[in-house]
Design a protein that fits this description.
Elements (H helix, E strand, L loop, with lengths): L3 E5 L1 H4 L13 H9 L6 E3 L7 H14 L4 E5 L2 H5 L4 H15 L5 E5 L12 H25 L2 E3 L22 H20 L14
Helix pairs in contact: 2-7, 3-5, 5-6
Protein backbone atom coordinates (compact mmCIF):
# COMPACT_ATOMS: atom_id res chain seq x y z
CA UNK A 1 0.00 0.00 0.00
CA UNK A 2 1.28 3.47 -0.91
CA UNK A 3 1.54 5.59 2.23
CA UNK A 4 2.48 8.90 0.58
CA UNK A 5 1.46 10.21 -2.83
CA UNK A 6 2.56 13.57 -4.25
CA UNK A 7 1.14 15.51 -7.17
CA UNK A 8 2.30 18.67 -8.90
CA UNK A 9 4.98 20.28 -11.01
CA UNK A 10 8.78 20.37 -11.04
CA UNK A 11 8.83 21.53 -7.42
CA UNK A 12 7.40 18.11 -6.57
CA UNK A 13 9.59 16.38 -9.15
CA UNK A 14 12.61 17.67 -7.22
CA UNK A 15 14.32 20.00 -9.68
CA UNK A 16 17.08 22.10 -8.20
CA UNK A 17 18.26 19.26 -5.96
CA UNK A 18 20.33 16.80 -8.04
CA UNK A 19 21.35 13.51 -6.47
CA UNK A 20 24.85 12.05 -7.09
CA UNK A 21 23.29 9.57 -9.53
CA UNK A 22 22.16 12.48 -11.73
CA UNK A 23 18.44 12.19 -11.03
CA UNK A 24 16.46 14.76 -9.07
CA UNK A 25 16.10 14.14 -5.36
CA UNK A 26 13.96 16.93 -3.90
CA UNK A 27 11.78 17.25 -0.83
CA UNK A 28 9.70 14.10 -1.36
CA UNK A 29 12.39 11.53 -0.46
CA UNK A 30 13.65 13.89 2.22
CA UNK A 31 10.14 13.98 3.72
CA UNK A 32 9.89 10.18 3.51
CA UNK A 33 13.08 9.92 5.52
CA UNK A 34 11.68 12.25 8.18
CA UNK A 35 8.37 10.36 8.33
CA UNK A 36 9.97 6.88 8.11
CA UNK A 37 8.13 6.07 4.88
CA UNK A 38 9.94 3.22 3.04
CA UNK A 39 11.00 3.84 -0.56
CA UNK A 40 8.47 1.35 -1.88
CA UNK A 41 5.58 3.11 -0.15
CA UNK A 42 5.82 6.47 -1.93
CA UNK A 43 4.52 7.50 -5.35
CA UNK A 44 5.67 10.81 -6.82
CA UNK A 45 3.51 11.91 -9.76
CA UNK A 46 5.06 15.38 -10.07
CA UNK A 47 6.14 16.34 -13.59
CA UNK A 48 8.08 19.23 -15.10
CA UNK A 49 5.95 22.19 -16.28
CA UNK A 50 2.67 20.70 -15.03
CA UNK A 51 -0.23 23.12 -14.61
CA UNK A 52 -3.30 22.75 -12.40
CA UNK A 53 -5.29 21.53 -15.41
CA UNK A 54 -2.66 18.89 -16.24
CA UNK A 55 -2.69 17.70 -12.64
CA UNK A 56 -6.47 17.29 -12.88
CA UNK A 57 -6.32 15.43 -16.18
CA UNK A 58 -3.17 13.33 -15.78
CA UNK A 59 -2.26 12.94 -12.11
CA UNK A 60 -5.47 13.21 -10.10
CA UNK A 61 -7.11 10.07 -11.59
CA UNK A 62 -4.03 8.01 -10.68
CA UNK A 63 -3.97 9.41 -7.16
CA UNK A 64 -7.67 8.67 -6.65
CA UNK A 65 -7.46 5.16 -8.12
CA UNK A 66 -5.14 4.05 -5.30
CA UNK A 67 -5.70 6.70 -2.69
CA UNK A 68 -2.99 7.14 -0.07
CA UNK A 69 -3.58 8.21 3.53
CA UNK A 70 -1.17 11.13 3.05
CA UNK A 71 -1.19 13.20 -0.14
CA UNK A 72 0.84 16.28 -1.01
CA UNK A 73 0.07 18.73 -3.82
CA UNK A 74 2.18 21.66 -4.98
CA UNK A 75 1.15 23.18 -8.28
CA UNK A 76 0.23 26.55 -9.76
CA UNK A 77 3.44 28.41 -10.53
CA UNK A 78 3.29 27.44 -14.21
CA UNK A 79 -0.26 28.80 -14.37
CA UNK A 80 0.89 32.07 -12.81
CA UNK A 81 3.85 32.45 -15.16
CA UNK A 82 1.76 31.88 -18.29
CA UNK A 83 -1.68 32.92 -19.55
CA UNK A 84 -3.23 33.25 -16.11
CA UNK A 85 -7.01 32.90 -15.83
CA UNK A 86 -7.99 33.61 -12.17
CA UNK A 87 -11.46 32.05 -12.38
CA UNK A 88 -10.19 28.87 -13.96
CA UNK A 89 -7.27 28.71 -11.55
CA UNK A 90 -9.58 28.95 -8.53
CA UNK A 91 -11.90 26.31 -10.00
CA UNK A 92 -8.95 23.97 -10.63
CA UNK A 93 -7.72 24.34 -7.06
CA UNK A 94 -11.17 23.47 -5.71
CA UNK A 95 -11.33 20.44 -8.01
CA UNK A 96 -7.93 19.12 -6.94
CA UNK A 97 -8.26 19.61 -3.21
CA UNK A 98 -11.98 18.91 -3.08
CA UNK A 99 -11.63 15.53 -4.76
CA UNK A 100 -8.64 14.52 -2.64
CA UNK A 101 -10.29 15.48 0.65
CA UNK A 102 -11.74 12.71 2.78
CA UNK A 103 -12.13 11.54 6.38
CA UNK A 104 -9.24 9.07 6.10
CA UNK A 105 -6.91 11.30 4.08
CA UNK A 106 -4.46 13.98 5.16
CA UNK A 107 -3.79 16.38 2.30
CA UNK A 108 -1.13 19.09 2.44
CA UNK A 109 0.10 21.88 0.20
CA UNK A 110 2.08 25.12 0.49
CA UNK A 111 1.64 28.78 -0.26
CA UNK A 112 3.49 30.32 -3.19
CA UNK A 113 6.85 31.88 -2.34
CA UNK A 114 7.99 35.21 -3.77
CA UNK A 115 9.54 33.60 -6.85
CA UNK A 116 9.20 36.83 -8.89
CA UNK A 117 11.85 38.37 -6.63
CA UNK A 118 14.36 35.80 -7.93
CA UNK A 119 13.79 36.32 -11.65
CA UNK A 120 15.75 38.59 -14.03
CA UNK A 121 12.68 40.27 -15.49
CA UNK A 122 11.64 43.92 -16.01
CA UNK A 123 10.20 45.54 -12.91
CA UNK A 124 6.79 46.06 -14.52
CA UNK A 125 6.51 42.34 -15.25
CA UNK A 126 7.78 41.50 -11.76
CA UNK A 127 5.01 43.66 -10.29
CA UNK A 128 2.43 41.86 -12.44
CA UNK A 129 3.71 38.47 -11.35
CA UNK A 130 3.70 39.48 -7.70
CA UNK A 131 0.07 40.54 -7.97
CA UNK A 132 -0.77 37.18 -9.50
CA UNK A 133 1.09 35.35 -6.73
CA UNK A 134 -0.70 37.42 -4.08
CA UNK A 135 -4.07 36.61 -5.61
CA UNK A 136 -3.16 32.93 -5.92
CA UNK A 137 -2.19 32.78 -2.26
CA UNK A 138 -5.51 34.36 -1.29
CA UNK A 139 -7.33 31.75 -3.38
CA UNK A 140 -5.26 28.91 -1.96
CA UNK A 141 -5.98 30.07 1.60
CA UNK A 142 -9.72 29.98 0.91
CA UNK A 143 -9.60 26.61 -0.85
CA UNK A 144 -7.52 24.89 1.83
CA UNK A 145 -9.79 26.22 4.56
CA UNK A 146 -12.88 24.96 2.73
CA UNK A 147 -11.43 21.50 2.01
CA UNK A 148 -9.56 20.89 5.26
CA UNK A 149 -6.17 20.85 3.55
CA UNK A 150 -3.03 21.55 5.57
CA UNK A 151 -1.09 24.52 4.19
CA UNK A 152 2.56 25.23 4.86
CA UNK A 153 2.94 29.01 4.63
CA UNK A 154 6.35 29.35 3.02
CA UNK A 155 5.49 32.94 2.11
CA UNK A 156 5.59 33.79 5.82
CA UNK A 157 8.94 32.01 6.36
CA UNK A 158 11.76 34.57 6.17
CA UNK A 159 14.31 31.92 5.20
CA UNK A 160 12.70 31.59 1.78
CA UNK A 161 13.86 35.10 0.93
CA UNK A 162 17.51 34.03 1.25
CA UNK A 163 19.39 33.35 -2.03
CA UNK A 164 20.75 30.05 -0.72
CA UNK A 165 17.27 28.58 -0.66
CA UNK A 166 17.04 28.70 -4.44
CA UNK A 167 18.82 27.08 -7.37
CA UNK A 168 20.51 29.38 -9.92
CA UNK A 169 17.39 29.54 -12.12
CA UNK A 170 15.45 31.23 -9.30
CA UNK A 171 12.41 29.02 -9.96
CA UNK A 172 13.32 25.86 -8.08
CA UNK A 173 14.56 25.35 -4.53
CA UNK A 174 18.16 24.37 -3.91
CA UNK A 175 19.03 21.29 -1.84
CA UNK A 176 18.74 23.52 1.21
CA UNK A 177 15.32 24.73 0.09
CA UNK A 178 14.03 21.22 -0.52
CA UNK A 179 15.28 20.16 2.91
CA UNK A 180 13.63 23.16 4.53
CA UNK A 181 10.37 22.33 2.81
CA UNK A 182 10.52 18.68 3.88
CA UNK A 183 11.15 19.68 7.48
CA UNK A 184 8.30 22.17 7.41
CA UNK A 185 5.83 19.62 6.06
CA UNK A 186 6.97 16.98 8.55
CA UNK A 187 6.42 19.44 11.39
CA UNK A 188 3.04 20.47 10.00
CA UNK A 189 1.89 16.85 9.74
CA UNK A 190 3.21 16.01 13.19
CA UNK A 191 1.47 18.93 14.82
CA UNK A 192 -1.76 18.19 12.97
CA UNK A 193 -1.65 14.65 14.33
CA UNK A 194 -1.31 15.92 17.89
CA UNK A 195 -3.76 18.80 17.49
CA UNK A 196 -1.08 21.39 18.30
CA UNK A 197 -0.87 24.65 16.31
CA UNK A 198 1.88 24.81 13.73
CA UNK A 199 5.07 26.43 15.01
CA UNK A 200 7.71 27.15 12.31
CA UNK A 201 10.44 27.27 14.96
CA UNK A 202 10.25 23.49 15.31
CA UNK A 203 12.39 23.05 12.19
CA UNK A 204 14.79 25.96 12.47
CA UNK A 205 17.91 23.76 12.54
CA UNK A 206 17.56 21.77 9.35
CA UNK A 207 20.42 20.62 7.15
CA UNK A 208 20.92 19.63 3.56
Amino acid sequence: MIRLCTLGDSFVEGRGDPAPSGIWRGWVPRLCRLLDVPDGRVRNLGTHRATTRQVIEQQLPRALARKSPVIGVVVGVNDLMGAFDPARFRSDLFTIFGRLAGPDTLVFTASYADIPANLPVPEAFRALLRERFRLANDMLTAVTAATGTLRLDVMADAQWSEPGMWSPDGLHPSARGHQRFAEGVAALIGQAATGAPYDPRCHEKGNT
